[in-house]
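Input.
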Amino acid sequence: MAGGRGGVGVAGSGDSGALAAPAAASAPGAAPVAAPGAGSAWVLTVANTGAPLDAAGVESLSTLRASAKRGEDTDEAVGRFGVGFSAVLAVSDAPEVVSRGGARVRWSLAEARELVRTAAERNPALAEEAARRAGHVPLLRLPLPLPDADDDAGTAAPAVPDGYDTVVRLPLRDAAAAALARRLLAGVDDALLLALPGLAEVEVETPEGVRTLRRRADGPYTVIEDTGRTSTPARGPAAEPAAGLHPGTADPAAAPPPAGTRYRTRTAAGRLDPGLLADRPVEERLRPTWTVTWAVPVAPDGAPAAPTTAPVLHAPTPTDEPLGVPALLIASFPLEPTRRHLAPGPLTDFLVERAADAYAELLADWDPVTPGSVGLVPGPLGRGELDGALRAGILRRLPDVAFLPPAAPAEPAPAAPAAVV
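Output.
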């Protein structure tokens, strides 16, 4: 899906995962959210444009690793692994997905438990396993049909909003889930559109109002426009957030980000040697490609500006791996099963080197060359193992990169001697 549009909304009568994962899994954007019915609680609705969910997509969501997007280009595919969809269980016990002209499917924790209980009555081994799990069942492994109209259980397919192709409806579990969903919605930032190139617009609708983020190209820049922002960026070089700031650099928290932020980006990609994937799951071995993107905000005068996105690795959605390098990193690093932390190994080591190469290339191509570019030089102390390895790789390369103006202006060449006749 290229240039997709989508959005999210939350409505209800009550009071990094769960939002970003549906975005990565189904390229969602924002959709109008109908007010909940009588007696209902908060509902999070995510809608998108693009290819409808089909039987292969349902299988992908239900088997967690079997992605149905193997044939799509790396730079445009949104949602590489069905495992991302499992993040919706952080806020909902009954997710539903409906595509216009495609699949209609739901999952239900209560019904899954009842199905397991009934089957266990005839299977002692299953009964023992169910008891060991203390009520925890593999919810997404048990997809259920979603009828067009109300059935005896009172279930009906949610309507796909006008202008969209697929809708994900998440009845929120309780007040805590509603609070988490609203916090995640409030935290949506530029990284979402920079990380998912198949998504061009996201609209977030809450009881407080509607906020729209859009991505567009402007010459060498990628521009992220956010209707929730009104100020201009602080003049000054980019730098590490908080304590890691270089002298003279503005703290990102000191000034709100602009309505439209320009980014300079550098992307590198390629195919992987099969040996680097030997210890990775089958799904990853079927897609032997890698990609790395750095993004740095740009001030009005063209100098680097301080990043305002979360200072963590995005792969492509946010992880718990801290980064102090003064830029946003989006890369196909291998992750452990929770998709919050790196999986160590040869593939991670390879991508650290490719990320350091791309960062050096970003600095080498920066235009205009100003003293502010020094803010892009990371300090030597990392915030974690990945951050430390990236800093070391970048610092090894920078002595060979001319990214600062000369200390003194170049002297003019001497005039040629006059010809003697």
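The chain has nine helices and 14 strands.
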